[in-house]
Write a structure and sequence with these properties.
5-stranded antiparallel β-sheet, 6-stranded mixed β-sheet, 15% strand, alpha+beta, 496 residues
Amino acid sequence: VKRRAARLTGAAVLTALAAGAAPATAAVPIVVGLAWLLAAVVVGDARRALVALRDGVIVSVAAVVLLLPWSATWFTGSAPARGFVRQSPMSLARLLAFHTGPDGAGWLPFALLVAAALPLVVASGDRLRWAARGWALAILAFAAVEVPSRMQLHTARPVADVLLVPAALGLALAVGSGVGAFVAEIRSFVFGARQVAAIVAAAALIFPVASLLGDIADGRYRAPGATWSDALAFIPADAVADGPARVLWIGSPGGLPVDGIVSGDLSYTLTTGTTADLRAMLPATTPAADFAGAAVRIARDLRTARLGHVLAPLGVRYVVLVPGAGPGSPATPIDQRLVAGLDAQLDLAARDVGGLRVYTNDAWIPLTARLRDPGAPPSGATAGRDPLGAILGADLDSAGPLTSATARGPVLLAESYSSRRHITVNGHEQKAQRAFGLTDAFAGGSGRVQVGFDAPFWFSAAIALQLLLWAATLLFIALAPRLRARPAVPRVEDAS
């Protein structure tokens, strides 16, 4: 029992670590159990399948508990908290070939499906059961990508790359069972159709291996020799002098530096600077981020000539059109209406840099800025109903860095509004107000300003409890081998 508990605990820890990067992976153990149950309909062994499903539920629940309090937002928060993003559907052929990015290997990856089908033809016994389980897992993973994308085209859902990991594991399991069946059939004294099928299916492994060798010949797996950050080296240099700024990336989802927000026919994302760390892995589909996409579509339709002014409260200094994953990678055509609309903006200065179309926002204001004028920025219900009109009607030309000695007016913070954010001016605390219906604003005043966030007490307590839980879990895994019951030693009676 203790050995089984240690195995389940270790699986829960691994699942929690994976779910920390991709929350959808928390459900993988349950999906594996369902695959075992589905395979049992064909090859039997229902009892073991039910045990696998039960263990999968235990592991998934334990992983969610290990990630508390963050995992609680998966059920009550927005889609990005669960790692869900809006994305366009892909064709079934690309799905079966695992062709989710800008690069692919044509028809060669389909040979992997042929190799995985080997044990379904020639295997028997345990090899057939494991191959059936692998195929059941792959089918469930493929369906998890295909079905939602056909039912609701642009709804938020887990990234296809994450969902296809169980499919790859399932096919690997089937291929492994097939290799064992191939060796067994070749050793047979009888040569017939089963042996021919084994040889053909095993030979199919050569094709995906050949495509992989073609990708790794130069050691880069078809990755570009340079990155867009190299071409945009001037952005970090500008940040040293003027402070950090946001970059609005627009292009194909595979070319964006992090998972993009797909809204209709537009894919975009926001980053601070040109590189993104782990905190930017889950795209922020906040009202402010959604507003950025709506503003770009308005500019594309030539319904405004001041897009730079509209994006200024979000701290956007650069708008970058991304043609591909990197310099020299296959290019995706960019909507020429979008290019024409951005070129027509009066407050965006365009230039071509290393294959990129970069627009510098002449109306940019710092991420944390202070106005010289004492008048407060538009807020309230009216600004919330029409953020675009509120921003266009505001005078942001007087905005300067927070450290500016001449600014005495309100403080603007280019973050999505939160009632828990505050500033301290000369020892006096000020709560955030909703500016333009999107971001934070404060009354400000002269003097040194410090920005803070009021985390609730329960959150700090939950973090402390989580640390204790992780420590106890890892300690149990480390000590589990020593806690196993020792085999009983037969008692030897005194012969006398």
